[in-house]
Amino acid sequence: MFEKFAQLPADPILGLMAAFRTDTNPHKVDLGVGVYKDPTGNTPVLSAVKLAEQVCLDEETTKAYIGPAGDAGFNDAMTTVVFGAEALATQDDRIRTVQTPGGCGALRMAGELIKRALPNATMWVSDPTWAYHTPLFEGAGLTLKTYPYFDAQNGTVRFDDMMECLNQVKAGDVVLFHGCCHNPTGVDLSNAQWDEVVQLATKSEFLPFVDLAYQGFGDGLNEDAYGVRALAAQVPEMIVAVSCSKNFGLYRERTGAVMLVSPSSESANAALSQQLNIIRGNYSMPPAHGAAIVRIILADPKLREDWQTELKLMRDRIRDLRVLFADKMQQRGVERDFSFITRQKGMFSFLGISEQQVERLRTEYSIYIAPPSRINIAGINDANVDYLADAIASVL
Ligand code: LMR
Question: Annotated catalytic sites, by residue?
Fold first, then answer.
């Protein structure tokens, strides 16, 4: 059987990590996979996480199975982080959350739930969207189509085109939004634009699905949840997939959640039972450790404050790096105006350079950028920014 297989090319994002590791150029720069890096290029374990891990070690009394829904304390605490305590009080028991193995697990499990309920639905995703949305949802059996999103010329959202397209989406189709820090472009909807999306979603009756993988990396925890909360306040049904990889730095602990908003408490229970059944038939139940850490942090006022302080530090550092990088490009006197980078949010920006230029940066300068030209801003630091700006200026 195995002889029938052809060798697949390396993963477009994770393959860069492996290639970077084996590159012997001392000047190499990793702007590929979306992980936060500190000024020394390390991806740190947050100190709140370290402290919570100690509590976890001390308090853990069993390694017995946790069940398909995962950690109930984590699920409740994360639901509040996403929807906000005030909104939850008025949601009338319509939200059900289950812990998943990372944001990818949440996307895939929700995709399979959609397939079960709406086998012929089309899922509309932004053009462009995160490279792995396609295999995650197509793997669940969904058909994907794109709606206009990124205006590469101006580094903004093609909002009118997007709305015109979404206006045609039929009831029963699904529309995937990036809650904040759009991956790969860094270009987000404004609050006013979210309000228009909410109006349209209410009128058109498509199912909104929000991928909220970077909450806290844009403008703040509450600010970044504006779209999710505005939708939840108006639409009868929606799905949210969240990840604790970035905002808790728990990448390898695979900690995420899927949140289902249903029209009533009864339908919420029924949807939950279906979701749990799908999970049981896939990986049975999620790993416990990462969710226990998050639960402990969110339940302890001091740890929670430490975590929010560290999250703010990460957010502010990325914002500063955006300004630094744009300044350095301006100093190089290149024709292209890179100031759009300072207006974008989260870890990523789209450089808008050609595939050949991305390839030259890798082969001639050992600078690793995800296709088509997405850079992880957090990979920039004082030691590599001049080398990077020189290299980009030379390939432009
Ligand atoms: C990314 O987009 O780089 C991250 O979300 C990591 C991944 O899984 O690709």
Answer: 130, 211, 246
Q: Which domains are assigned to the chain?
A: 9-45+311-395 (3.90.1150.10), 65-299 (3.40.640.10)
State pTM to two decimals: 0.96
Minimum CA distance residue for ligand 1 atom 2: 34
- Stretches in the chain below the pLDDT threshold 50: none
Query: Does any ligand 1 atom lie closer than 6 A to the CB of residue 34?
Result: yes
Residues contacting 52, CB < 8 A, separation 6+: 292, 293, 294, 296, 297, 300, 303
The answer to whether 367 touches 361, Cβ cutoff 8 Å, is: yes
Q: How many CB atoms lie within 10 A of CB 148?
A: 17
In tens, the pLDDT along 176-191 reads 999 999 999 999 999 9
User: Please, which residues bridge with residue 242 across strands?
Assistant: 212, 257
By alpha-carbon position, which residue is closest to atom 5 of ligand 1? 34
* Cβ of residue 183 lying under 6 Å from some atom of ligand 1: yes
**Measured distance CA(91)–CA(38) in Å, rounded:** 39
243 lines ligand 1 (CB under 6 A): no
